Amino acid sequence: MDLQFLGTSSGVPTKSRNVSATAVIEASGSHWYLVDCGEGTQHQLLHSPLSMRDLRGIFITHVHGDHCFGLPGLLASAGMSGRTEPLDLILPAALQDWVRLSLAASESYLPFELRMLPVEQLQHWQSSHVEVSTVQLSHRVPSVGFVFTELNPEPRLDIARLEAEGIPRGPLWGDLAKGISVEHDGQTLDARVYLKASRPARRVIVCGDNDNPALLAQVAQGADVLVHEATFTQPIIDRSGNSFGHSTAAAVARFAEQAGVRNLVLTHFSARYQADPKRSPCIDDVREEAQAHYSGNLTLARDLQRYHIGRDGGLVAVSA
Ligand SMILES: [Zn+2]
Question: How far is the CA of 124 from the centre of ligand 1 (A)?
């Protein structure tokens, strides 16, 4: 599974960071999932190899505008680009009427079925390659994280089983390997039964805004990657006396260290943190604060950067 960040700023965009949006990309191909859709997400997508036709689902973590104001434009453009496949949009129930009204009032016609599912009722969603569940977080409004788990990654033929059941080598095996069910001895053989994962399933958690990382204790166990906001550094909170429902780099890093998170990706940075190391406060302050509490593989997400989970389980930046 890969990640590509389309927006890593909190609240407002900056010249180098757009507002929240993260693409989760299947290992097996180009199919992908979008978590949050801040304004301008469709513009960011133009700078990525991701196509609206390959999008398999949109997941919105909470109602705040920096996480959803890009929806009407992105959906309308998906329609104009000729998408016809149904699209699932998992979002807070309170946003459903807003999406419907935005499209209706602007007379935007979608040539595909938009299936809106309230995130509050989402137990478990799945596509053919990925299963998604939610974890409740703590913010000024209800907020969730989405847990993406691969289903049967890189399936290979279960040769021992095929041989044990006396299924002859040849075209039958070939079809089963492609996931096509076949007829043999008057019986239908379900391809899924004869394919098994050739490596452990990856698990990636992409969180919405959250001021209490400890809520992730259970799902973080064994997760490959945790993507979490680090809106502020501790000195900023100490000065203002208010975290506005957000986390500091230190708090997230401390949690990740304790939970044994292998790869921690921080995002959703306050626009006050500048890229220029000579200015203050600077994004390096966020990195240094996190590094002081976390010894794992730390990444500060950058807009349009793609990251890949390598064979050894380490997250690395790759060219998109
Ligand atoms: Zn936010």
Answer: 24
Query: How big is the chain, counted in residues?
Result: 320
Q: Which residue among 178, 196, 214 closes a domain? A: 196
Q: Please give the residue range of the domain that contains residue 233.
A: 2-153+199-318
Active-site residue list: 66
Q: What's the pTM?
A: 0.93
In the reported structure, the alpha carbon of residue 61 is separated from the centroid of ligand 1 by a whole-number distance in angstroms of 9
The Cα angle at residue 216 between residues 211 and 220, in degrees rounded to 5 = 140
70 and 168 together in one domain? no
The three-class DSSP label of residue 6 is strand
* CA–CA gap between residue 8 and residue 17 (Å, rounded): 6
Per-residue pLDDT, 154: 86
Assess whether 141 and 268 both reside in one domain: yes
For 132, residues 6+ apart whose C-beta sits below 8 A from its C-beta are 33, 57, 59, 90, 122, 124, 125, 126, 146, 147, 148, 149
* pLDDT tens digits, one per residue of 280-320: 999 999 999 999 999 999 999 999 999 999 888 999 999 87
Ligand 1 mean position, distance from CA 13 (Å): 11
